[in-house]
Amino acid sequence: VVKRAVASQPDIPEAAERAEKFRQKYRHKLQTLRHQPFAYGSLTVRSLLDTREHCLDEFNFPDPYSKIKERENDIALKYYQKAVKSLEELSWEDRQFALVRGVLAGNVFDWGAKAVSEVLESNPEFGFEEAKRRLEERPWLIDSFDRWLERLKGPPHRCALFFVDNSGVDIILGVMPFVRELLSRGTEVVLASNSGPALNDVTNSELQILTERIAVMDPVIESALREDSLTLIQSGSSSPCLDLSRLDKVLAMVVRERQTDLVIIEGMGRAIHTNYYAMLSCESLKMAVIKNSWLADRLGGKLFSVVFKYEVPAGKPH
């Protein structure tokens, strides 16, 4: 993170000095927590990640990953039309699987995970197809895909709320084609992204620009934006994790007004570190690729294991 912070401000000579102060402050906080785990309230993965973002802000590194995000977005946009075209050539059933696999492969592109950032550092051309090859084969560690496929044969959902994760390949080649399919089924989609930066997560202001750029290439997205069946709203969070009890008020209102009946949560921070056991009152999909070995061990999997958890609340027909 220190290296990224310095690289994000190449024209500012004292950036290295501030980055070093950030390192010392964050390490000091970690040392304190090692001796007094509850010094700053409850100790969770989320509180550790949030503390890091606060320290970065304090030393004036509001978005250390901005340059990386720009570069990865530009690269991914070049492949968007090709990706959509190859999906359209598949049979309906094959396409549903390819769409899910696309979201999962996109989610591999995460600078917050050491195993991945090392690959991305050593091979900046690390591609979408290579990411697909890294994914474990089915049956996945948590695998409800067959139930999800059965559900898709039924009536379309009214409205899907999708909590998105990373910039670049994740949002552009993974999430957008999946969203496009939901829209084509007649489901309204609300994309909820971070209000402020954290790691390489896409922010709401970045997503607005990206979606406009995609709309120019894709009539499905263009008409969905025009007719308001695709809406982009900030989540109220500036964290790689997701606290569903602290959502932006506008988002909460829209979710209620549109009678949302499907919630999709993507990524390790939002779908596993937080909300893995959260029971929602409507159907939910939690999708993530496990990118650190501690978490893989804990869940009984390995690096690049897949979590695809589709849940229907008790009392509702499956």
Automatic annotation (TrEMBL):
Homodimer. Interacts with PKM. InterPro entries: ARMT-1-like_metal-bd_sf, ARMT1-like_metal-bd, At2g17340_3_helix_bundle, Type_II_PanK. It comes from the Eukaryota. Residues 16-302 form the Damage-control phosphatase ARMT1-like metal-binding domain. One of its GO terms (biological process) is coenzyme A biosynthetic process. One of its GO terms (cellular component) is cytosol. Phosphatase which shows a preference for 4'-phosphopantetheine and its oxidatively damaged forms (sulfonate or S-sulfonate), providing strong indirect evidence that the phosphatase activity pre-empts damage in the coenzyme A (CoA) pathway. Hydrolyzing excess 4'-phosphopantetheine could constitute a directed overflow mechanism to prevent its oxidation to the S-sulfonate, sulfonate, or other forms. Hydrolyzing 4'-phosphopantetheine sulfonate or S-sulfonate would forestall their conversion to inactive forms of CoA and acyl carrier protein. It catalyses: (R)-4'-phospho-S-sulfopantetheine + H2O = (R)-S-sulfopantetheine + phosphate. It comes from Crenichthys baileyi (White River springfish). Its cofactor is Mn(2+); Ni(2+). One of its GO terms (molecular function) is hydrolase activity. This is 4'-phosphopantetheine phosphatase. The lineage of its organism: Eukaryota, Metazoa, Chordata, Craniata, Vertebrata. Keywords: Hydrolase, Kinase, Manganese, Metal-binding, Nickel, Nitration, Transferase.
